[in-house]
Write a structure and sequence with these properties.
heterodimer, A: mainly alpha, two-stranded antiparallel sheet, 66% helix, 1% strand, globular, B: 317 residues, 6-stranded mixed β-sheet, 5-stranded mixed β-sheet, 7 helices, 11 strands, 36% helix, elongated, translocase (chain A), ion transport (chain A)
Chain lengths: 651, 317
C-alpha cells in the first residue's frame, strides 16, 4: 500500500454530524437498491437511462444531478450561516467549517451550475438548431458519466478519507502536502480532473454540433441566442479547461508523486497555481454566465411577444465578453504585489467587461419596451435578474479598481459581490429555464402558484442573505472565518444573513415541492407550444419524441418557428416522412464512469499499484469502443407517422 | 463634498441602522484616505448606473406589462437602433474611462511613501506571518513583537511582508489596503497613522485551522510615547532565543508577546533560500483529532492569552 492512507483511516469517524450522514447515505443506498429490485426496475434503469445516448435524457440526468448537488451545496451554505450567526458558536469546528465552505464553493460552481447549464444545453441546443442529436452522442454520454464520477468522488470525500479543506480555490502552499497532508485535497485534484475531462469533451461536442448539425437555412446569424451563448461558452470551455487540467495534473503530481511544482519547501512556485487557477477560473465564470444570458434572451423575447432587440449587437457583446474573459485573471490577486503597472492594466481590462454586459442589459430592457410582458414564473425570474445582476455588476466594477480592491479583497464584500453575480446570473437563469422548458422535457408545466412561493421566498431570502455581506466586508470581516469576536458590530448583520438563508432554503424547498406536486397532479394535456414560442424547440412535441423532428425543419430567418407560425408552415405532410436514423445505446460510457471512479479512489488514497492495474480497464473501454461497429438504427416510417399523429392529430 | 452627499447619506443611514461603523470608511492615514476617496467616487458613478437601470426597468416593466386591456395587442417586430446601441456602448465606456484615471493614480500613489511625509525618515518593520500569528520585527530598535505592532504617528512605516509558512494577507483597513505575505519573498507596504489609536489588523487570506484568530492590533502612539515604549521594552522584555522563536513558529494561536532582539539574526524568511518551517505531523495529527469533541481540538492550539515566555502587554479578549 506504500505511503498511502491506512485502512483504519478510510472511514471518517467520531463526528456525530458525519456519522449521521454516513448512516443516511447507507440507508438511502439500501432503499434505492431495494426499491429498484421490488419494482423490478433494474433493466428499465439500464435500458432507458444508464446506457442512453439520447441528448434529452442525458440532459435530464445532468439536471437531476445538478438539483441534488444544489441541495448538498445549499446545506453547506446553511451550516456556514448558522455557525457565524452568533460570535463564538460551536456548531462546527474550524476544520469542519473549512471543509464545508470548500465543498460549498466547489459543488456550487462545478457540480451545480455546470451540470444544470450543460444539462439545459443538452436538451435544448439540438432542438433549437433542428438536429436529431448532438454530433457525438456516445461521447456525450461519456461526458456525463465522467462528470458524474467526479461529482460522486468529491461528494463521498467527507465520509471516506476526509474532505478537501483548502477552499474552492485551493491556493498553494496551503493545498500542498506540506500544510494539508491528509487525503482531503487529493480528492480535489482527482475528482475535478475527472469531471473536467467530461466538461472539455462536452465543449468540443457542442462546438461541432452547432457548427455541423444545423438544419437547412439555419445560418450562424439566425441561431437563437441560447445557442449562440452556448456556442461561445463551449469555445471558452475548450480554451480554458485544458489550463485547469494542467494545473490539477501538477497538483496531483505534487501531492501524490512528491514533485515540487507549487510547494514552497522544494523551491516550487505557489503563485503559479494562482495564475493557472484563475486563467481557468475567471473564464469559468463566463462559461456559466453566458448560457444564462442566452436563457434570459429567449425568455424575455418570448414573454414580451417581440423579437430580441439588437440581435447582432448581442452576438458581438458575447464574443467581446468571451475575449475579455481571458484577459482579466490577475484581478483575483491584485494584492499579490505585482506592481501598479500590472494592476492598472488588469483594472482596465476588467472594467471593460462592463461595457458589453451593459449593452446586453439595455438590449433586454428594449426588448420589453413596446412589448406585452407576460408575468409567468419564467419571466419573473428573468425580470428579477436585471436589477439584482446590476447590483452584482456595479460592485464588480468597484472591485475591478485595483487600489479600491485592496480594501475589498477577500472580504465579505467580495463574497456578496460574486453571489450577486452568480445567483441572478446562473441560478435565476436555471430556474427561469426550468419553468420555461419543463413542458418540453416532461410534458407538463410546473405549477405557477407554487412557483410564485418559490420565486418570492427565494428572492427575499437571497437579498437578505447576501446584502448584509457588502457591509460586513466594509466593517472588516474577511471571508471564510468560522468564528469571530463580539463587539465588532457584525452580529446583527450576520444574524439577518442567517435568517435570510433560512428563507432562501424555504424557497428552494418550495421549488422541490413544486416538482413533486406537478409530477403528481399537473395536467398532461400540454401543447407543443405552451408559451407561444419563437424558436424551433417549440415546433415539436412536448415531451419531445426521441427522434426530435419527423422531418428536419427548414429555416428562413431569425425566430424560425415564429415565422413558420405566421406563414402557416408548421404542419407535416404524411408523404414526406422518411425513416429516421438514430444512434444506438451503449454501455461503454457508463462502464468508463465506473472505471474512472475506481481509478480515482485508488489515486486519492495513493494506492498506486491498484490504480495502475485499474487504469488498464480504461484501455479496455477504449478498445471496446474501437471495435464497436454499431452504426445505429432506423425508426420506421410507420412508427414516425404514428408518433406524429399522436400529438398533431391527423396528418 | 456636495457630490458625495447622496452616497454618504445612504451609507450613514445603513451605519445608523446597523448601529456600528465601517472601518473602510474611517481612514486614519493618507493611504486609506486616498483609497476611500476613490471608493466614494466609484460609489457615486455606480449609483448613477443603478438609478438609470432601475428607473428604466421599473418604467418599462410597469408600462408594458400585460393587463386585461391590452390582451389583444400584438407588439411589432423591432430591428434595433444603431444610434441607441451606440449610446449605451459609449456611455459605459465613458464611465469606465472616468473610473480608470483615478484608479491608476491611486494605485500608483499607495505604493509610495505617503504624500506630504516624503521628508520624514520611514521606519522599517519586518512582518512575518506564520500559522496562525503575526510577528513584527523592528531591526533598528532590535525589538520583536507578536500579534501587535506599535508605531509612531505621522511617520511613514515601511512594512516588509513575508511568511514563514502559508500565504497570508496583511490588512489594516483604517490605514490602507492589503497585500500578501508569502514565503521566500518580500512585499513592501507603506502605511501611516495620523493620530494615536488602536487599529484592527487582520489576515484575509484563508490559511487553515487557526485562520479566524489571525488578527492583530496596530497601536499608533505619539512619538514620545513610542520612544518611551521602546525604552520600556529594552529594560523589561526578555531576549528572544532561537529555541523560543521556533516555539512561536509552531502551528497554533498565541497571545501578544514582546522580546528584545529579532529573529532576523538567524533567518529572514523573505530570503529566496530561507528554510521553510514545516510541521507536517502536527497538521496531520491535528486533523485526526477532528470529531473527538471540539474541546480537544482547541487544546492543540495554545490559548490566545498565553503569557508563556513572552512579555505580556495586556490580555487579548
Amino acid at each position: 500500500m506504500g505511503n498511502g492512507i491506512k485502512f483504519s483511516e478510510i472511514l471518517v469517524t467520531g463526528d456525530p454530524l458525519i456519522l449521521a450522514s454516513q448512516i443516511a447515505i447507507l440507508l438511502t443506498s439500501i432503499a434505492i437498491v431495494a426499491g429498484l429490485t421490488y419494482f423490478n426496475k433494474w433493466s428499465w434503469l439500464w435500458r432507458e437511462w444508464l446506457t442512453t445516448v439520447d441528448h434529452k435524457k442525458i440532459g435530464i440526468m445532468y439536471i437531476i444531478a445538478g438539483v441534488v448537488m444544489f441541495f448538498r451545496g445549499g446545506m453547506d451554505g446553511l451550516m456556514m450561516r448558522a455557525q457565524t450567526s452568533q460570535p463564538g458558536l460551536e456548531i462546527l469546528s474550524s476544520q469542519h467549517y473549512n471543509e464545508v465552505f470548500t465543498a460549498h464553493g466547489v459543488i456550487m460552481i462545478l457540480f451545480m451550475a455546470m451540470p444544470l447549464l450543460i444539462g439545459l444545453m443538452n436538451v435544448i441546443i439540438p432542438l433549437q438548431i433542428g438536429a436529431r442529436d448532438v454530433a457525438f452522442p456516445q461521447l456525450n454520454a461519456l461526458s456525463f458519466w465522467l462528470f458524474f464520477s467526479g461529482a460522486m468522488l468529491f461528494n463521498i470525500a467527507f465520509v471516506i478519507g476526509g474532505a478537501p479543506d483548502a477552499g474552492w480555490t485551493s491556493y498553494f502552499p496551503l493545498a500542498g502536502k506540506e500544510f494539508t497532508p491528509n487525503v482531503g485535497n487529493n480528492y480535489y485534484a482527482i475528482s475535478l480532473q475527472i469531471a473536467g475531462i467530461g466538461t472539455l469533451m462536452s465543449g468540443i461536442n457542442f462546438i461541432v454540433t452547432i457548427l455541423k448539425m444545423r438544419t437547412k437555412g439555419m445560418t450562424l446569424m439566425r441561431m437563437p441566442m441560447f445557442t449562440w451563448t452556448s456556442f461561445i461558452a463551449s469555445i471558452i470551455i475548450v480554451a480554458a479547461f485544458p489550463i485547469f487540467t494542467v494545473a490539477l495534473g501538477y497538483m496531483a503530481l505534487d501531492r501524490i508523486f512528491g514533485t515540487h511544482i507549487f510547494t514552497i519547501s522544494g523551491g516550487g512556485e505557489p503563485m503559479h497555481w494562482a495564475n493557472l487557477f484563475w486563467l481557468w477560473g475567471h473564464p469559468e465564470v463566463y462559461i456559466v454566465a453566458l448560457p444564462a444570458f442566452g436563457i434570459f434572451s429567449e425568455i424575455i423575447a418570448t414573454h414580451s411577444r417581440k423579437n430580441l432587440y439588437g440581435y447582432s449587437s448581442m452576438v458581438i457583446s458575447i464574443v467581446g465578453i468571451a475575449i475579455l474573459s481571458m484577459l482579466v485573471w490577475v484581478h483575483h490577486f491584485y494584492t499579490m504585489g505585482s506592481g501598479p503597472v500590472v494592476n492598472s492594466v488588469f483594472s482596465i481590462t476588467t472594467m471593460l467587461i462592463a461595457v458589453p454586459t451593459g449593452m446586453k442589459i439595455f438590449n433586454w430592457l428594449f426588448t420589453m419596451r413596446k412589448g406585452r410582458i407576460q408575468m409567468t414564473n419564467a419571466m419573473l425570474w428573468s425580470l428579477a435578474f436585471i436589477p439584482t445582476f446590476t447590483i452584482g455588476g456595479v460592485t464588480g466594477v468597484m472591485l475591478a479598481m485595483a487600489a479600491a480592491d485592496y480594501q475589498y479583497h477577500n472580504t465579505m464584500f467580495l463574497v456578496a459581490h460574486f453571489h450577486y453575480v452568480l445567483i441572478p446570473g446562473v441560478v435565476f437563469a436555471v430556474f427561469a429555464a426550468l419553468y420555461y422548458w419543463w413542458p418540453k422535457m416532461f410534458g407538463f408545466t410546473l405549477n405557477e402558484k407554487i412557483g410564485r412561493w418559490h420565486f418570492w421566498l427565494f428572492n427575499i431570502g437571497f437579498n437578505m442573505t447576501f446584502m448584509p455581506m457588502f457591509f460586513l466586508g466594509l466593517k472588516g470581516m474577511s471571508r471564510r472565518m468560522f468564528t469571530y469576536q463580539e463587539g465588532l458590530g457584525w452580529e446583527p448583520l450576520l444574524l439577518v444573513s442567517f435568517a435570510g438563508s433560512l428563507i432562501l432554503a424555504a424557497g428552494f424547498a418550495a421549488f422541490c415541492y413544486n416538482i413533486y406536486w406537478s409530477f403528481r397532479y399537473a395536467s398532461r394535456d400540454v401543447s407543443n407550444d405552451p408559451w407561444d414560442g419563437r424558436t424551433l424547440e417549440w415546433a415539436t412535441a412536448s415531451p419531445v419524441q426521441h427522434y426530435n423532428f419527423a422531418k428536419l425543419p427548414e429555416v428562413t430567418g431569425i425566430d424560425a418557428y415564429w415565422k413558420m407560425k405566421k406563414e402557416g408552415t408548421t404542419g407535416l405532410i404524411k408523404e414526406e416522412i422518411e425513416p429516421v436514423h438514430m444512434p444506438s445505446n451503449s454501455g461503454i460510457p457508463f462502464f468508463m464512469g465506473v472505471v474512472f471512479t475506481i481509478v480515482g479512489l485508488f489515486l486519492v488514497f495513493e494506492w498506486l499499484i491498484p490504480a495502475l492495474i485499474a487504469s488498464f480497464l480504461i484501455f479496455v473501454g477504449l478498445i471496446m469502443r474501437s471495435f464497436d461497429y454499431d452504426d445505429g438504427y432506423y425508426v420506421g416510417v410507420d412508427e414516425v407517422t404514428k408518433t406524429e399523429q399522436s400529438w398533431r392529430g391527423d396528418l | 463634498m456636495k457630490k458625495y452627499f447622496l452616497p454618504l447619506f445612504l451609507l450613514s443611514l445603513v451605519m445608523f441602522l446597523t448601529g456600528c461603523e465601517m472601518v473602510v470608511f474611517q481612514p486614519e492615514g493618507p493611504q486609506a484616505r486616498s483609497i476611500l476617496e476613490l471608493i466614494n467616487f466609484s460609489i457615486v458613478m455606480m449609483l448613477f448606473v443603478i438609478v438609470v437601470v432601475f428607473a428604466l426597468f421599473i418604467y418599462i416593466v410597469w408600462k408594458y406589462r400585460e393587463t386585461a386591456k391590452n390582451k389583444d395587442y400584438e407588439p411589432e417586430e423591432e430591428k434595433g437602433s444603431i444610434a441607441l446601441e451606440i449610446t449605451w456602448t459609449v456611455i459605459p465606456l465613458l464611465i469606465v474611462i472616468a473610473l480608470t484615471i483615478p484608479t491608476v493614480l491611486v494605485t500608483f500613489a499607495v505604493e509610495d511613501v505617503p504624500k506630504g511625509y516624503e521628508d520624514k525618515e520611514p521606519i522599517t518593520i519586518h512582518v512575518t506571518a506564520a500559522d496562525w500569528k503575526w510577528i513584527f520585527s523592528y531591526p533598528e530598535e532590535d525589538i520583536q513583537t507578536v500579534n501587535y505592532v506599535n508605531i509612531p504617528i505621522e511617520t511613514p512605516i515601511l512594512f516588509k511582508l513575508t511568511s514563514a509558512s502559508t500565504m497570508q494577507s496583511f490588512w489594516v483597513p483604517q490605514l490602507g489596503g492589503q497585500k500578501y505575505a508569502m514565503a521566500n519573498m518580500e512585499n513592501e507596504l507603506y502605511l501611516l497613522a495620523e493620530r494615536p489609536g488602536t487599529f484592527m489588523g487582520r489576515n484575509t487570506n484563508f490559511n487553515g485551522q487557526g485562520y479566524a484568530y489571525m488578527d492583530f492590533d496596530v497601536v499608533a502612539k505619539t512619538e514620545a510615547d513610542y520612544e518611551k515604549w521602546v525604552q520600556d521594552v529594552k529594560q523589561t522584555a526578555p531576549t528572544l532565543t532561537e529555541e523560543k522563536y521556533m516555539h512561536i513558529l509552531y502551528p497554533g494561536v498565541v497571545g501578544r508577546m514582546t522580546f528584545n532582539e529579532t529573529h532576523l539574526q538567524w533567518v529572514n524568511h523573505a530570503d529566496h533560500d530561507a528554510q521553510i518551517f514545516l510541521h507536517q505531523e502536527t497538521y496531520r495529527n491535528y486533523y485526526h483529532t477532528k470529531g473527538e469533541g471540539y474541546e480537544r481540538e482547541y487544546n492543540t492550539i495554545e490559548p490566545r492569552s498565553s503569557e508563556e515566555g513572552g512579555h505580556n502587554h495586556g490580555k487579548r479578549d
